[in-house]
Amino acid sequence: MSTSTERRPAEALRRVLERPLASYQLVLGASALLVGLGLVMVLSSSSVLAYRSGGNSYGIVIKQGLFAVLGLGGAYIALKMPLAVIKKLATILLVAVLGLMLLTLVPGIGVEVGGNRNWLPLVGGFRLQPSEFAKLALIIWISALYANRQKALHGRRSTHAMLMPVLPVAGFVAGLVVLQKDLGTALVLFAVIFGMLLAVGLPRKLVASGVALLGVALVLLVATAPHRMDRLMNFLDPMSDPDRTGYQAIHSMMALATGGFWGVGLGGSRQKWGALPNAHTDFILAVVGEELGLFGTLIVLILFVVLVVTGVRIALRTKDQFAHYLAIGITVWISVQAAINIGMVLGLLPVIGITLPLMSYGGSSLLVTMTALGLLARCALTEPGAERALASRQRKAR
Predict the structure, then answer these.
(1) How far, in Å, CA of 250 to CA of 235, rounded?
(2) Would you say 150 and 139 are in contact if contact means Cβ atoms under 8 Å apart?
(3) Beta-carbon-side half-sphere exposure of residue 130 (alpha carbons within 13 Å)
(4) What is the enclosing helix (H) or strand (E) of 271?
(5) Is the Cβ–Cβ distance between 44 and 269 less than 8 Å?
(6) Within a domain: 123
(7) What span, in angstroms and rounded, lies between the C-alpha atoms of 43 and 58?
(8) Measured torsion, CA atoms of residues 66, 71, 77, 78, in degrees rounded to the nearest 10
(9) Which domain holds residue 164?
(10) Which residues have C-beta within 8 Å of that of residue 35, sequence separation ≥ 6?
(11) CB count, 10 Å around CB of 77?
């Protein structure tokens, strides 16, 4: 009796996942929930700062809301645009983003924020971060390249076809990000590059060698920057310097500890009153943990797991090679960036300054991530029977 009862939910879940539109609906549903929760938490975590700096508690969340609307537009365009058109535009998109990134390094044009020179000024006090767009542009370009050379990838010179010109071009993009002093974004880009090389079939020994070389380079970058070295050393023992390099990590853990299982209630965070720097950006998950408790934090983690698992599912089920590589690249990007941010907030990784996708305040990040997830949903429609099932639903709705 108990065995049959246990089988029913599992069988129901299996039937749901077997539907042609399951991946499509999971991507859109999880993304919408994360964006909605993110806007609520940006309002809660930024209200005090916004009031102190501009006299309007809603000032920061209004900006985030505007970018959410733009992101919705970007996601809609990505969802409706044929993948063949996106593939043709891959090189143009990458060159355009590279041009914007180079502009950030020009004196008098690029704007430095928090030690990172990776911003361009826009009208109305808004700023654009081209390195965020570089993630998606690079993924699209690599995916188009690999999709167009399937025979070469399985030929005698397959390793050469996998590495050239992906390695020099991607290395140049990542190098520009390093020059902008944005180590967090550079790490995500490196993860995307190695993830896609591994997915295309590059021998694991070569991937491992590349990771080892990257590790050495990162050690040199950290060792030559005193503030990064301080953060790394303090990560091992935040209490060794509680008023300076260990300050954020300590107050993040205090927020999580205060929240308990159910939290102190939405809007009830104490850390957002100035004790926790960047509460609405890099450390928004700490505010979630304080206000919504372990329960709310687990909801966020589950939604990210749903996105990542669905991205892998799309990559495995699609017959379209371009969609296959796109799904892999976007999934690696979202999962690695989320993992770094979550590890940083929980004290498992050093503080390197990286946002939580879809939730942290940051217009460029929100806009490009929503567009990327719209593109992932478009890839889900290349699964067997998905596009036909969606068209049938749309006809019935008319």
Answers:
(1) 10
(2) no
(3) 27
(4) none
(5) yes
(6) yes
(7) 7
(8) 170
(9) 35-44+58-390
(10) 68, 71, 358, 366, 370
(11) 14
User: Could you identify the residue written with the tokens 């979630």?
Assistant: 288
d(CA 257, CA 101): 40
Backbone angles phi, psi at 279, to 5 degrees: -65, -30
What integer pLDDT is reported at residue 223 of this predicted model? 67
How many folded domains does the chain comprise?
A: 1
Rounded to 5 degrees, φ, ψ at 105 are -90, -5
Q: Give the HSE-up count for residue 184: Cα atoms under 13 Å, Cβ half-sphere.
A: 24
**pTM for this model (two decimals):** 0.94
Whole-angstrom CA distances from 293 to 272, 358, 379 are 15, 19, 35
Task: Please give the structure tokens belonging to residue 101.
Answer: 């990134």
CA distances from 319 to 81, 322, 329, 343 (A): 18, 9, 16, 35
Of 142-146, 182-186, 319-323, where does mean pLDDT reach its minimum?
182-186
| Alpha-carbon torsion (81, 334, 71, 121), positive or negative | negative
Closest-CA residue to 297 (of 278, 307, 309, 284): 284
Q: For residue 120, list its beta bridge partners.
A: 128
In a domain, 78, yes or no: yes
Residues composing the chain: 398
Nearest to 246 by CA among 350, 125, 103: 350
Taking each helix axis as running N to C, give the angle between helix 284-317 and helix 22-54, from 0 to 180 degrees, rounded to the nearest 10. 160
Asked whether residue 266 is domain-assigned, the answer is yes
**pLDDT for 162-213, tens place per residue?**
999 999 999 899 889 888 878 888 889 999 999 999 999 888 888 888 888 8
Sorting pLDDT into bands at 50, 70 and 90, what band is 341? very high
Q: Give the separation between CA 298 and CA 308, rounded to whole angstroms.
A: 15
| 49 domain residue, yes or no | no
- For tokens 């950290």, what's the residue? 222
